[in-house]
Write a structure and sequence with these properties.
3 domains, 10 helices, alpha/beta, binds S-adenosylmethionine, OB fold (Dihydrolipoamide Acetyltransferase, E2P), Rossmann fold, globular, about 450 residues, seven-stranded mixed sheet
Length: about 450
């Protein structure tokens, strides 16, 4: 017979605990009679009075009520609002410890999931100034006290906390959000009401080219009707001369997904331009573009270092986005074949090849898993294959197709260590040696871990 374990704590109880570890999301972990409690804003070694606020079968959640001791790695947070929203969950941990936390996350999955503890995981490459780095913001718009406000969601809720300084975003983006917010107030634009699914303006999205200063504003609305645009647009342009593109995105669905299908261009075109190394890139509102421009060059340099191209290689770039990696590599390779699933991104990628006078790249619209086997059928062989998938990692059939096409090197750019480790184990089974992993901090103050891995065919 199975023994029934009882949960040793109840809701609202207070306990004194010592934090033993951090979860991969950066929450402190304490144990009461072996039962884990996850506690926000708590660091290893700290002795805390915790109030239990949720219990499940195998773990619970608590709130730190009083700190009896404080970790030497704790740093003062910049703003109390920042602690309430989820945009910078590691902000209370010193930056050097954030970097080692990220390196440890990768080591941990290489041991636990990939079963390859011997693979070298280098120290995380961090930023000199790990604040104000984001080149893109998407802020919710709501009504509070009869006023249109912009801010961010309170953790685990859909209440918006009004904020003016987001700290991790380019300060020029924060400024642009406030300017647009004020203009919207002037014309009494109706903010979205999520519960009732009424009102109109849902989100303001701002993207800014780090090197060019060009700004794109996306006004996400519930309906296609929008205010007195003939007044709003000139006002935005006058107040923000860096704005090159204003797009209305219509999202009529009752959903957490921010962008809808329909775009209406209100000013300029649905694009801005930025540069990475010496290439120019046009970026549209729906295309993926790395959010940390300074670290993007560090990341891509690592991809180039691992690929070690001499000019004679055929390269395949899967999950190519607007072609940033493909075009960076094309200058050092014979030919690059690239695939991407989002149509607008592929259009950008092709235009970007032209913009930079690069003609040794072929961009295709499609899914990596369907396109790679076709490429192999057409007799294309690759020396180097780069993958940069979303968080869910590679489809199993894609791993099989990579093993079949047998490139000498695979360079795996990952934003999720758990799926990376799973995929590396499969590639290792298929005849690849995992040589080295380099974490790169693309998301300071958050728990997100980006890395580049070099694999070589045995
Ligand atoms: C993490 S981004 C990387 C983009 C690009 N390499 C870069 O550095 O900017 C992943 C990209 O994969 C695309 N994508 C998602 N699923 C895909 C699939 N099954 N096949 C091809 N591309 C896909 C996304 O649209 C996105 O542009």
């Amino acid at each position: 017979m199975k023994t029934q374990h009882t949960v040793p704590v109840s809701k609202n109880e207070k306990h004194i605990v010592t934090i033993e570890d951090l979860t991969h999301e950066g929450m402190g972990v304490a144990k009461i009679k072996g039962y884990p409690i996850f506690i926000d804003n708590a660091l290893p070694g700290e002795k805390i009075e915790v109030k239990i606020h949720k219990t499940g079968k195998s773990f619970g959640y608590g709130k730190a009520m009083k700190f009896l001791t404080s970790s030497k790695d704790r740093v003062e947070i910049k703003d109390e609002h920042l602690g309430k929203v989820g945009i910078s969950p590691l902000q209370h941990l010193s930056y050097s410890k954030q970097l080692s936390f990220k390196q440890d996350q990768v080591k941990n999955v290489m041991q636990r999931i990939a079963k390859m503890p011997e693979v070298p995981v280098k120290q995380t490459l961090g930023m000199k100034n790990p604040w104000g780095y984001r080149n893109k913001a998407q802020v919710p718009v709501r009504k509070q006290n009869e006023k249109l406000v912009t801010g961010f969601f309170r953790k685990n809720s859909h209440d918006v906390i009004p904020m003016e300084n987001f700290y991790i975003q380019d300060p020029k983006i924060d400024e642009a959000i406030l300017t647009v917010r004020n203009i919207m107030r002037t014309y009494s634009v109706k903010p979205y009401n999520e519960q009732q699914h009424t009102g109109n303006l849902r989100h303001i999205m701002v993207r800014r080219g780090y090197h060019t200063g060009e700004i794109m504003i996306v006004l996400v609305t519930r309906t296609a009707k929008l205010f007195p645009t003939s007044k709003i647009i000139p006002d935005i342009l006058e107040a923000l001369p860096e704005v090159k593109s204003i797009v209305q995105n219509v999202n009529p669905k009752h959903t957490n997904v921010i962008l809808g299908e329909e775009n209406i261009v209100l000013h300029g075109e649905d694009k801005i331009v930025d540069t990475i190394f010496d290439n120019q890139f046009e970026i549209s509102s729906k295309s993926f573009y790395q959010v940390n421009p300074q670290q993007t060059e560090v990341l891509y340099q690592k991809v180039l270092d691992y690929a070690a191209l001499t000019g004679n290689e055929t390269v395949i770039d899967l999950y190519a986005g607007i072609g940033t990696i493909s075009l960076t590599m094309a200058k050092h390779a014979k030919h690059v074949y690239a695939v991407e699933i989002i149509e607008d991104a592929v259009k950008n990628a092709k235009a970007n090849a032209t913009l930079n006078n690069i003609d040794n790249v072929t961009f295709e619209l499609g899914t990596a898993e369907e396109w790679l086997p076709q490429l192999a059928e057409n007799g294309i062989k690759a020396d180097v294959l780069v993958v940069d998938p979303p968080r869910k990692g590679l489809e199993k059939e894609l791993v099989e197709a990579i093993i079949d096409i047998a490139p000498k090197k695979v360079v795996y750019v990952s934003c999720n260590p758990a799926t990376l480790a799973r995929d590396l184990a499969l590639l290792a089974e298929g005849g690849y040696d995992v040589k080295e992993i380099q974490p790169v901090d693309m998301f300071p103050q958050t728990h997100h871990v980006e890395s580049v891995t070099l694999l070589e065919k045995r």
